[in-house]
Design goal:
Elements (H helix, E strand, L loop, with lengths): L4 H5 L3 H29 L1 H26 L4 H51 L6 H17 L1 H44 L7 H40 L4 H11 L5 H17 L2 H27 L7 H37 L30 H7 L11
Helix pairs in contact: 3-4, 3-6, 3-7, 3-11, 4-8, 7-8, 7-10, 7-11, 8-9, 9-10
């Protein structure tokens, strides 16, 4: 033993610390990779459960209010669930009906736009002849015929995907029923696996995380409504076809921060460009920019506050990671997951939550994890809690 001590002493402290941090970092990255692979493999189960959890965060406050008013829990769950399905079904029916009504008008305007483009190609600076234009059209038709097999296989894949979507919807609905009816009991059962001495802290952190999820879903739904109404009014004033379907697309896109708004806005601007012209498309683009500025500078800070305050870079990276792991569904669930982790970790690091009992946390009200500790999230405070002489100073 004594012969090895001088050899270990020859290793520079910086190298020893770097090696210790390095292998721990490798272990963490490997664990995250395994988790990502498992989630990707079980995506057909994880995604419906995640969507059900988002819907539970949106609907559980209504179930709780009905229960407090004296309505049995099962009846409250059924009323809220049926009401939600009726609203969603009615909205979808209305959107599909309006899309069907506006499609002929859009087709006529697209044909007129294509005629304008054809005239420009023939009479403009390119001076293409009718023979050349017909040759290009024949090339397009020939390309479609040559790839008919791939198109057919793609259609079959789409049919299989629709079957998977329907199966996922059924699983999400089934899971949502149990989340609404006995979500608290399911959470208490899961908390039992945590060691007894830290169970209350984990329970409080989990409840803080779900409270932030409730705040996130509630605020996002309100922001989505405002975005859809604002863009819809702009489309209606400019007389762009398919106002209702495009507004519905903006509403759905708002649930994916940044990326969803850009995608839905691009579709609306493209439809305005094809159907109405460049001036109207620029007007719609201005409306979209104004709505996004209202969302980012007024609605999000006012509705979310500090309960689910996330840095924009963290949001973008979370969406990118979600896209890599599970596509659009991963992008939809990435930011809510980040909000839950943010609130839960802040609660675990907060001195003020040490004395909070789990039942004191109202998961249906906005929560500010560790808000009493004005500097509780600083690195020096976290390090100070590990020293015995800093234990009392953190509680003052």
């Amino acid at each position: 033993m004594t012969g090895r001590e001088p050899e270990s002493g020859r290793v520079p402290p910086l190298l020893r610390v770097s090696a210790a941090l390095g292998w721990r970092f490798v272990v963490v990255v490997a664990a995250l990779y395994v988790v990502a692979q498992v989630v990707g493999f079980l995506a057909s189960v994880v995604i419906p459960v995640g969507i059900a959890l988002l819907l539970a965060a949106l609907l559980s406050p209504a179930v709780s209010q009905l229960t407090q008013a004296g309505v049995p829990r099962g009846v409250s769950t059924g009323l809220v669930l049926v009401s939600g399905l009726v609203v969603v079904g009615g909205v979808l029916t209305f959107v599909i009906t309006e899309f069907s009504k506006g499609l002929p008008q859009l087709q006529d305007q697209v044909n007129a736009s294509l005629g304008t483009i054809r005239d420009w190609l023939r009479d403009g600076p390119l001076h293409l002849s009718d023979v050349q234009l017909q040759q290009y059209l024949d090339d397009v038709v020939e390309t479609v015929q040559e790839n008919q097999g791939e198109i057919t296989s793609g259609a079959l894949t789409t049919a299989a995907t629709l079957g998977e979507i329907l199966t996922g919807l059924v699983l999400a609905l089934f899971t949502l029923i149990f989340f609404l009816h006995d979500g608290d009991g399911i959470w208490r059962f899961l908390v039992r696996i945590v060691p007894h001495d830290v169970r209350d802290r984990a329970d409080v952190a989990g409840r803080r995380g779900f409270a932030s999820l409730v705040s996130y879903v509630r605020a996002t739904a309100l922001v989505a409504v405002v975005d859809a109404v604002g863009v819809g009014v702009g489309l209606w004033l400019v007389d762009v076809p398919l106002v209702v379907p495009l507004s519905a697309l903006v509403f759905l896109g708002a649930f994916i921060p940044i990326v969803g708004a850009v995608f839905a806005g691009a579709v609306a601007v493209l439809v305005a460009l094809v159907a109405n012209g460049p001036v109207e498309a620029l007007i719609i683009l201005g409306v979209l920019i104004g709505v996004m500025q209202l969302e980012s500078h007024v609605l999000q800070p006012l509705l979310l506050g500090r309960a689910v305050k996330l840095h924009p870079l963290a949001v973008v990276l979370a969406i990118a990671a979600g896209l890599v792991v599970s596509g659009m569904a991963g992008a939809l669930l990435a930011v809510p997951l980040l909000a839950v982790l943010n609130s839960g970790i802040r609660s675990l690091l907060s001195n003020s939550d040490r004395s909070v009992r789990p039942r004191q946390v109202d998961v249906h009200e906005p929560q500010e994890s560790g808000a009493v500790d004005t500097a509780g999230d600083r690195v020096e405070d976290i390090e100070g809690r590990e020293r015995p002489d800093a234990g009392h100073s953190g509680r003052r």
